[in-house]
Amino acid sequence: MGDMTNSDFYSKNQRNEANHAGEFGCTMEELRSLMELRGTEAVVKIKETYGDTEGICRRLKTSPVEGLPGTAPDLDKRKQIFGQNFIPPKKPKTFLQLVWEALQDVTLIILEIAAIISLGLSFYHPPGEGNEGCATAQAGAEDEGEAEAGWIEGAAILLSVICVVLVTAFNDWSKEKQFRGLQSRIEQEQKFTVVRGAQVIQIPVAEIVVGDIAQVKYGDLLPADGIFIQGNDLKIDESSLTGESDQVRKSVDKDPMLLSGTHVMEGSGRMLVTAVGVNSQTGIIFTLLGAGGEEEEKKDKKGKMQDGNMDTSQSKAKQQDGAAAMEMQPLKSAEGGDGDDKKKANMHKKEKSVLQGKLTKLAVQIGKAGLVMSAITVIILVLYFTVDTFVVNKKPWLPECTPVYVQYFVKFFIIGVTVLVVAVPEGLPLAVTISLAYSVKKMMKDNNLVRHLDACETMGNATAICSDKTGTLTTNRMTVVQAYIGDVHYKEIPDPSVINSQTMELLVNAIAINSAYTTKILPPEKEGALPRQVGNKTECGLLGFVLDLKQDYEPVRSQMPEEKLYKVYTFNSVRKSMSTVIKMPDESFRMYSKGASEIVLKKCCKILSASGEARVFRPRDRDEMVKKVIEPMACDGLRTICVAYRDFPSSPEPDWENENDILNDLTCICVVGIEDPVRPEVPEAIRKCQRAGITVRMVTGDNINTARAIAIKCGIIHPGEDFLCIEGKEFNRRIRNEKGEIEQERIDKIWPKLRVLARSSPTDKHTLVKGIIDSTHTEQRQVVAVTGDGTNDGPALKKADVGFAMGIAGTDVAKEASDIILTDDNFSSIVKAVMWGRNVYDSISKFLQFQLTVNVVAVIVAFTGACITQDSPLKAVQMLWVNLIMDTFASLALATEPPTESLLLRKPYGRNKPLISRTMMKNILGHAVYQLTLIFTLLFVGEKMFMIDSGRNAPLHSPPSEHYTIIFNTFVMMQLFNEINARKIHGERNVFDGIFRNPIFCTIVLGTFAIQIVIVQFGGKPFSCSPLQLDQWMWCIFIGLGELVWGQIIATIPTSRLKFLKEAGRLTQKEEIPEEELNEDVEEIDHAERELRRGQILWFRGLNRIQTQIEVVNTFKSGASFQGALRRQSSVTSQSQDVTNLSSPSHVSLSNVLSSPTSTPPAAAGHPRREGIP
């Protein structure tokens, strides 16, 4: 479908072109082919065809300065001819496809087969039916009606299978829909600045048309293809299209081609949009992917293309070691194959999230136990029947009796399958999904836009947050509050009259011209509100200073429009300053600079005195100024900015490329202190984090004194504590050895005490995050969250376990790399994310506690019942109903508990805290004991208590007995009341606490109760129920209520006494080695490996090693970027916990060559006893 729509799109456009080619001077095809050229080729082509960029503008009927007129008919016409800036998304899976996927579940398939056999047999009436010699004799002659009803059980099983499938499919479908809603919401929020009718406006990206003049600046993600028509110092990162990581310098006369999907890393300027949507370079690639994807899907349904960023070289490598992979195929678990693909496609993260890891492990363990139990059940039933019939009663096997016997065997098989169905907690993935989806939806209200589902849960385990200062901890509303002008330090804004007029003129020009022209201060929207700041906030602060001095910057800008600026050195994290060169009327040049005071002052050799004359400014004057002016300002928490200028002669013209000579010999005009007040809610939020066991660290580009002052205001550091505040330079000096390499041991000495890292570069941030994550200094691996807004924060955001990007101040690049977008840029939203994350974890635990109690009881009842009475007291359909309550409904009820503040009172769980704690184990086993005692009592002496017929040893198609109905009903009642107990997992007494805050929970409990009444009273044969009397109902409910009382008794037993209880579902340290996402076969081996003998383990390990080496060799052969190979290798050399690594020299040498972590033999990961293996 995807390729269809796109090709239609083209043919339609071609037709349009013929009609409209006259209206615009160039067709879409011409522009498309033009955009495929690069560099000088493109310049030549533009010269030949259009004369220059102005020529293209004329043909596209647009003005390079004023932009499009912006009238509706004109815009519509452009959309019609050149297309819209919108790439049609790939079609979502249809509901039927999802149903089909849900049907792939193995247990369900087994059940379906069993049900179909059972149905077939019930319609087949063998001649030997009436034969007294067959085993049915023990039942006496059956009623005719009963024999007819034999089909009901099979049909009921099929029906319940359909229910389960529909519920699963519906959940997947709504998840997909939510995810798409989220994507479109992220896309809608993306705005871009264009010039229309000489006004600079922001419009949604989808509204951009060919011929628009767009303003591009540092940090933008280009939304369409275009030609660079004016600007300065523009550098673009085109790696998303070309794979080259070097930044490409763009200029009007050398390489003016700007491509969609690339990132602006430096500079600013204007571009003429020439191709949008499916015609832009990114669009063309997407179209190919859409078309290619369809064919791929046809070729191989299972698809090895799970990971979006799989390089071609990698897929080659994959095909080549197909042989090795084949060896491993048998170990792949049947269920592991398809269900996870969807998740994998959306995950770019380094490893499985903590929760997923623990759950997979637990599910595998439970599944195996269930399989064993069900197999034993079937074997015992079959043996008992055959022995009883043919040995004890010495019946011969008559041919006409065969169908009857087969019917018995099918019935046993169905019982076995039901045990398995109840044992396998297929509700687990459902609970996780519901819980995450619910949290994500609610987190939107708390200003967290979650881009990757699992980030939400990882956040609950966070142990460290590295936060920016500006805009996250502070309000990002800059105002100048102190200034040092003409040898005087003013503690508040000076009166304009006291400042020398020459100095004033220089100051106004320096601020107005040397700042992005997109930065403005607009009048407030409401009366009495503060003026609106648009653009770069620091520059807004400076422009505000000009206005406070009763001056105006607009006339200066209109006199010197942006096109006339001679050269601009834009701000970047290396320069930490920005400079603009203009041509003076007398042909000489003047450069204005502004930037971090200690950096700019080092380059000043003169300073303006009170009379406006420049006097010499020596290094010792500078030291004195730092002491007397800059440090006091910084200690008040102000950012200090120095404004300076320099004049150049007209001839010889300076060499503008030689930055070091140009940015020197400046004359200082003034130094200002800019205040950025701490957000009022931040100190409280940080206190909550610290109470919750999360360390907050501030990583900022600001001066160390400013940073320290703000950190104290926020409560990140408390006077008198033992902590570190250091600058980036010092940090680098301490963590590097003599050769300048970073050493993990050195980082381990610093990070535990580090609270403030000032004057840090983005690389420092990345180094710190990586250092904390890779550290083995603490017994738990640290889980680190990072906030970032700048383009250069991308690597740190990607490296962190959870990356938060700023929704308002953040650049597109940062948002792209992040997991969660903070729509209000506020630190206190992060605390909300922690709360939700912990809540997800707790919800899953609550669900598990409930689920496992039911599992244990149901399996034991079915198993012992079947062995003693040859018939499970709980029938297949009843089991499926129980499965439905406890899986689907309970996951809904328990996974949607709202979070409470009390979640923030405990420490993070960490990676090796088991999912099922001792307390939970105590609850599970305790309740299981209660339920089993009562059910067995009812099973063996129930008929005497209630004065009813015994239901034991009933023949094949006998009517449902009251006896077994009571057992089924009591069982469900106990589950219902136990669901209330399951709301608390830390052994709290009051299980009703806050129950009405969760309407879903109440609805589900009451709803289940109502349906249960209907099933028992009117379920009849399909549910194997016979209606009960009121007093029997009362007893069932009474026994159920006993659960609540028993819950209190269990809570009194101190857990510490019960040393023998094992926890389950913990991730051991060894398994934490991130598993590579691509080799799913390896992941499955991890689980299977535990069962394999030692020889086999070594054999797999060898195979795997060969596989890895083949992959590396292939990557080198195909000459693809190393990135591809490395991305797949887990970052483990730094931890080098892997003993076996040393035994393979090829690996060791590789890690030296690539100096970046290479793979551990992945089969080794996750083997608990692997140290012992030679």
TrEMBL record:
Instruction: Provide any one GO MF term from the record.
Output: ATP binding
Principal cellular location given in the protein's record: membrane
Q: How does it sit in the membrane?
A: Multi-pass membrane protein
List the InterPro entries: ATP_Ca_trans_C (IPR022141), ATPase_P-typ_cation-transptr_C (IPR006068), ATPase_P-typ_cation-transptr_N (IPR004014), ATPase_P-typ_cyto_dom_N (IPR023299), ATPase_P-typ_P_site (IPR018303), ATPase_P-typ_TM_dom_sf (IPR023298), ATPase_P-typ_transduc_dom_A_sf (IPR008250), ATPase_P-type_domA (IPR059000)
So where does this one cross the membrane? 98-121, 151-170, 371-392, 412-438, 924-942, 1000-1020, 1032-1053
Q: Where is the composition biased (Basic and acidic residues)?
A: 296-305
Positions of region (Disordered): 296-350, 1133-1174
**Coiled-coil stretches noted in the UniProt entry, renumbered to this chain:** none
Q: Where in the cell is it found?
A: Cell membrane; Membrane
Pfam families, alphabetically?
ATP_Ca_trans_C, Cation_ATPase, Cation_ATPase_C, Cation_ATPase_N, E1-E2_ATPase, Hydrolase_3
Where are the compositionally biased (Polar residues) regions? Answer: 1141-1158
Keyword Cell cycle found: no
Report keywords, A-Z.
ATP-binding, Calcium, Calcium transport, Calmodulin-binding, Cell membrane, Ion transport, Magnesium, Membrane, Metal-binding, Nucleotide-binding, Phosphoprotein, Translocase, Transmembrane, Transmembrane helix, Transport
Q: Which reaction does it catalyse?
A: Ca(2+)(in) + ATP + H2O = Ca(2+)(out) + ADP + phosphate + H(+)
Domain Cation-transporting P-type ATPase N-terminal residues, every copy? 47-123
Q: What is its EC number?
A: 7.2.2.10
Asked if Chloroplast is a keyword of the record, the answer is no
GO cellular component terms, alphabetically, are:
glutamatergic synapse; postsynaptic density membrane
Role played: Catalyzes the hydrolysis of ATP coupled with the transport of calcium.
- Return the NCBIfam families for the record: ATPase-IIB_Ca, ATPase_P-type
Family listed? Belongs to the cation transport ATPase (P-type) (TC 3.A.3) family. Type IIB subfamily.
Kindly provide the name given to this protein in its UniProt entry: Calcium-transporting ATPase
Q: What organism does the UniProt record list as the source?
A: Sarcophilus harrisii (Tasmanian devil)
